[in-house]
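Batch manifest line 536
LIGAND: guanosine-5',3'-tetraphosphate
JOB: complex structure
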Amino acid sequence: MFELAEMAVIEEIKREVARRRTFAIISHPDAGKTTLTEKLLLYSGAIELAGAVKARKNQRHATSDWLEMEQSRGISITSTALQFDYQGCRFNLLDTPGHQDFSEDTYRTLMAVDSAVMVLDGAKGIEPQTKKLFDVCRMRHIPILIFINKMDQPGRPPLDLLDEIEKVLGMGAVPKNWPIGEGPDFQGVYDLEQKQVLRFQRTVRGQQRAPVWVGEIDDPQFAEEIGGPAYRQLCEDVALLAGAGFSFDRERFLKGEVAPVYFGSAIHNFGVEPFLAGLKELAPPPGARMSSHGLVAPGIEAFSGFIFKIQANMDRRHRDRMAFLRVCSGRFEKDMLVYHSRLDRKVRMTRPHRLFGRERETIEEAFAGDVVGLVNPGLFAIGDTLCSAAPLKYDGIPRFHPECFGILINRNLSKNKQFQKGLQQLEEEGVMQVLFSPDGARREPILAVVGNLQFDVVQARLQYEYDVETSVERLPYTSARWISGDADAIDKMIRLRWEGMHLQDRDGQMVALFSTERECAFHQKHYPEIEFKELK
Ligand code: G4P
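JOB STATUS: finished
ARTIFACT:
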């Protein structure tokens, strides 16, 4: 009897895992990530009318200095996790920040997804940020689906775009559909597998789903309606593609070597549904993940997951920190007792949340592939593993080494308590690392960050979220090493005073800053007794 009940539970978990699709959208700013996100929500039925996400984006901008900075630079700093259903599948869409300086944050998010959607602007093709984000995906062999957007505007020939993907990214590009008409004459897509024409009609401001006519390419009515030039071009292209011998290899797609390509216009809702259907069909459900105890399959009874992101003050009304857990196996339940590997103790999962943009609601359960928001009373750090059965640990989330350094000065000394709290919480989020002068020689903390813009983020967030005004005095160093090993040799290196600076991190470990990699390499060579680590 008991065994039967247990089998039924496992069957349910397997069913739930099989219908999960957890993905992120990566793109260069302005390619249309926000618009596509919104249209995926429209087509899944999660929202009734397009415009809501954008409206909220604007509303947020109006109320926050920090987010105004986000707007003025055309980047997205806030991350959200959206969940929606489409034709029996449950999608988890994780937002990735869109600026090059946030590669570390982006990397963490990409550790938590099973596939990625790359949005390209049909006129611009591969842009610098697309390439950077792609490199991160490649490091993890994440399967990628491509949506070539803005086909309603004059752009580049589709074959050129495919060629650029192959040349610049070194990834095979296999078209799943083909645009009908160009620029202002863009009318829909031709499904190359089903050999079907999908001709869309525009709606007012693209708020509602676009009515679609589905038919055969040799239907005379279709030929007449789309007009001679567009029809001739389509027939020529289709013949050319048949001869080009594109074929989609699922195994290579799953390794991130080949990407299916879809064309469309997110703003007009053209080609959005075929893309969503493609995502459902091709994006893989959660797979097995490597842990300290070997591969963990997602469809087992035991729950496990890891924290990939921490964010403070997501909502000023709540004033709390949210830790984001990616469930990797089994079923997560509200109030369950789980083992916290790093703290080596059990913790109760009270108040788990699901997030929809900035809205949050308490959830009762979640399955592998889902993202759960945990209100974090300082219990969780990025990379922590939580599990219900035998203690295990998922591979850590790598950190990028800092390349920019600056002294952070608190301009308002009466706010020292808030200043310290803000520093600690933002460091916990992984926004920056905080270093200190040994023996308190210098009172102000030194920030170590991956990119310059991160200084502005720290300052703006301290101001907006903790009400502390600060300034940053930039330091001329470009690289840091965590130092350990022979104490006499370390002492000698410090006494002989190189051009750099020696500091300590929060745990008291020594950190040396160097102006150039060459200078760092010189010291490494001269002090073989000392260990120089790029990361903590
Ligand atoms: P992002 O999140 O990748 O940064 O891009 P976002 O969706 O915000 O889109 C950037 C701009 O491109 C927006 O215009 C948006 O309306 C436009 N856009 C998105 N998809 C399409 C498309 O398929 N065709 C065309 N022609 N434009 C598209 P904006 O002027 O910056 O904003 P808004 O005033 O339209 O809101």
